[in-house]
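Re: that backbone. Tokens:
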């Protein structure tokens, strides 16, 4: 670490181990700190009455569609970021245009409909602006599609954002993804999902009103 990377400060977790058969630990690091010219700190365990916080626990919540549970462990909402691609325009034909993000190969929540905040760069303001949104994450079984997409309908917004980067901040799952018998049934459900998402987001904090980090 010191010779190869020039490390001057090492921070490890409460159960950290390294080397063959996990023979190295925090004690080994501390014993060699003065000689190596580095400082070492250990982060204490974090958790709740339900157990210790861990990456596997966060992934389990995401797999179940419980994005709020994952956020409690991570200390922040789960997000997916990507560039908006052109789709089949079905959402616009139904009256609910969507910004489509490919999510294959990324860690993502269970398939379903979610209330979320959509972060878009506002050229006039020169900053990231968060807008309420509802999104379907899945393969669109009503249309027998296979590509895994996050289809984001930004509420009360009609701008052209094709090719732009969008940051989706998940708040809550509205329902699982399912197949509908026809477009009328699908359109009615989307309207209901939109109303549910609007209520969920209105009950919580607006990211524009709190300090948020951005990698845009």
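Recovered sequence:
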């Amino acid at each position: 670490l010191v010779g190869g990377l020039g490390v001057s400060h090492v921070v490890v977790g409460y159960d950290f181990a390294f080397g063959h058969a996990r023979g190295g630990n925090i004690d080994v690091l501390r014993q060699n700190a003065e000689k190596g010219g580095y400082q070492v700190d250990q982060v204490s365990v974090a958790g709740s009455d339900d157990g210790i916080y861990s990456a596997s626990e966060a992934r389990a919540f995401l797999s179940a569609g419980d994005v709020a549970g994952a956020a409690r462990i991570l200390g922040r909402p789960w997000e997916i970021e990507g560039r908006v691609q052109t789709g089949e325009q079905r959402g616009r034909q139904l009256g609910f245009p969507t910004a489509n993000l490919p999510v294959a190969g990324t860690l993502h929540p269970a398939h379903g409909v979610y209330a979320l905040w959509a972060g878009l760069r506002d050229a006039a303001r020169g900053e990231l602006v968060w807008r309420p949104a509802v999104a379907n994450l899945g393969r669109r079984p009503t249309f027998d599609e296979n590509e895994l997409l996050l289809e984001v309908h930004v509420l009360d917004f009609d701008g052209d954002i094709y090719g732009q980067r969008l940051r989706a901040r998940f708040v809550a799952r509205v329902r699982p993804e399912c197949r509908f018998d026809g477009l009328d049934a699908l359109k009615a459900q989307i309207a209901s999902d939109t109303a549910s998402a609007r209520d969920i987001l209105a009950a919580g904090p607006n990211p524009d009103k709190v300090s948020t980090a951005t990698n845009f």
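The chain has two domains: 2-45, 51-205. The first strand starts at residue 9 and ends at 12.
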